[in-house]
Design goal:
Order of helices and strands: EEEEEEEEEEEEEEEEEEEEEEEEEEEE
Strand order of the largest sheet: 20-26-25-22-23
Oligomer: single chain
Number of strands: 28
Number of helices: 0
Shape: rod-shaped
Length: 324
């Protein structure tokens, strides 16, 4: 504005009529402009100015300053671990590095974009058996028919992989960045590869003549017989249970049950029901931890007999001789 004789003038024109000595002053100031900085994208980082007036992080979202016309401001972008600086837009569109120089001739906006790094997770399935690997997050749902699968995850993502063997197979363990046979937990800070190995498991096998008691063709004089047999052998895993099948073959009465099935984890079983007099067969099958079922043993025949007593038909209870 004006000072002196023209201080009352509000426009940029001052008219002076000289009838005496006069003094006129004109005052000029530099324009002041806003510089706004915005941090954008999926990643994290910071932008600082060399003057220190701007120190902006992704948590802030945006920041700025006011500066005089013609002020040169140098901004530097720095990505945090796991992120990448993608570039500048706004007042620095032509800048290709991490530094942006802005000369203020008007209000300016600068945008710095950061992205989270993304990494490949590769899962391979190996071995003679079959199974599946699935992830709790992401796109891993891999079967032996796929052989391998790949997913892409953001930096810092935690992924839990679970391996499940198909029937007839067993999960042997992890290879690559995981080990053991439990779940595989990964934090994605780089590309990673994991292998899950499944092997075939042979079905359990009984030794020759596995059925001990009652012996084939034997006579039983108790209504709740005890059955005993030899252990089955399993090459890949353990036997977890046995299934005993008892079948009455004669004489049969209408309405009576003729087949009974029992399960046990032992190699002997005393049945908890009263069998009637007659002829029976029994056999055993073994089941292993992988769900494989052995071939059924050959049927063994036994007979339950009842003798007549003074008070009518009676069962005779005699101790059984158990083969060692």
């Amino acid at each position: 504005g004006w000072t002196g004789i023209c201080m009352a003038e509000l426009s940029n024109t001052c008219t002076v009529t000289l009838d005496q000595a006069q003094s006129v002053g004109a005052t000029f100031t530099l324009n002041v402009y806003d510089l706004s900085v915005v941090l954008d994208g999926t990643g994290f980082g910071s932008v600082v100015s060399t003057s220190g007036e701007i120190n902006c992080t992704s948590n802030d979202g945006s920041c700025g300053l006011m500066a005089d016309h013609g002020t040169e401001i140098v901004l530097t972008a720095t990505a945090e671990e796991g992120s990448t600086f993608e570039g500048w837009t706004g007042a620095c569109p032509a800048e290709v590095g991490i530094t942006c120089t802005v000369t203020l001739g008007q209000a300016q906006l600068v945008r710095a974009t950061f992205s989270l790094n993304r990494y490949d997770l590769s899962v391979g399935l190996d071995g003679t058996g079959t199974g599946a690997v699935v992830s709790d997050v992401g796109d891993i749902n891999c079967t032996s028919s796929d052989a391998s699968c790949t997913a892409i995850a953001n930096y810092g993502t935690t992924i839990v992989l679970t391996a499940t063997a198909d029937a007839g197979s067993i999960f042997v363990g992890w290879g690559g960045v995981c080990s053991g046979t439990g779940s595989c937990t990964l934090r994605m800070v780089e590309a990673k590869a994991v292998t899950a190995t499944f092997d075939d498991v042979a079905e359990p096998v009984f030794p020759t003549d596995p059925l001990n008691e009652p012996p084939d063709g034997g006579k039983v004089e108790t209504k709740q017989p005890t059955f005993e047999w030899k252990d089955a052998f399993d090459e890949g895993t353990s036997v977890v249970k046995y299934t005993v099948t008892v079948t009455q073959t004669g004489p049969l009465r209408t309405g009576d049950s003729t087949v009974w099935t029992f399960e046990t984890t032992e190699t002997s079983l005393t049945i908890d029901l009263d069998l009637s007099a007659g002829e029976y067969t029994w056999s055993v099958q073994a089941v292993d931890a992988a769900g494989n079922v052995s071939a059924k043993t050959a049927d063994s025949l036994f007979t339950i007999e009842i003798e007549e007593g003074d008070d009518g038909p009676q069962r005779i209870f005699l101790p059984l001789v158990v083969n060692p």
